Please model this.
Amino acid sequence: MIDLINNLTEEINSLTAHDTQAAEALRIKYLGKKGVITALFNDFKNLDSDQKRALGQPLNALKNLAADKINALKEAASVAPDESVAGIDLSRTAAPMPLGSRHPITLVRNEITDIFGRLGFTIAEGPEIEDDWHVFSALNFAEDHPARDMQDTFFIGRNPDVLLRTHTSSVQARVMEHTQPPIRIICPGRVYRNEAISARAHCFFHQVEALYVDTNVSYADLRQTLMYFAQEMFGPDTRIRLRPSYFPFTEPSAEMDISLSMGGCELFKEAFVVFREHAQVFDLIFEICNTFYSHAECESAVFAAVNAASIKHIRVYHAAAKNFNPAGVFAERAALASA
Model:
């Protein structure tokens, strides 16, 4: 029996259990009513006195060892992580949490960069705190240009001039310093100008500029690129117009107008074109486009806006708005353009 006790001692010392159920199975195996150690105690009763004196202490030690070992396995298994819920954060609330979304400016910027990316343009970025050379001088700004004045630009330091960039053209200058043509980049980013803060303007805003330098590139490429962008951004029915405009640091220069339907009212598709040359009416029309959606409301609002603006040919526009005739508005705009 002493050999059996020694063997069981070694066996119990090497016991392991992955969970409480396995530890309980070990308790039943060794200490249950029909367990191995319980059977030894039953046989112990049939031994003579000398054998009882020799085996009593080792047998009791074996029983205590088994009880301590199994209790320790149960305790360890009760605090061990449950593999069935591995990777689950049990501290999270049971109620679903909204995930949120990207900022609208980020969404628009991503859409713009994606459109130009399909045309082969890559993204170029640069510092927002810039020097005078990259913001003005390298771009042919005259020394007396208004943008160099304190009232238009945020200067951080003087001699040398350090400022918050007023446009992302500074990124173009940096790219051209270190890159050989062909160059096809867009420069999105935040720019800063010393302007009064209002509902329509702020001291900083986001801008995207594009630069395309290569052989056999003409004004036609510029127009088609802008057309593609406008139709991808605002819809396939979008039309554009490039009109000459004076900028002292570029030649030729042009500004782009976009004609599109707003708010489901086709009148604005033409009214937008007719009035876009008149800033006062353009602002009124733009506000109306974001306010009214039915044709009746649009007609009334346009009539009031045109009637309130003192501009040339007001009666022509007045009649077109009053009669709610989009085709007539477009015809009058064409006649005015050819006059």
In short: Strands lie at 122-123, 129-131, 155-157, 162-164, 183-192, 204-213, 239-244, 254-259. The longest strand covers residues 183-192. The mean pLDDT is 75. The CA atoms of residues 1 and 55 lie 8 Å apart.
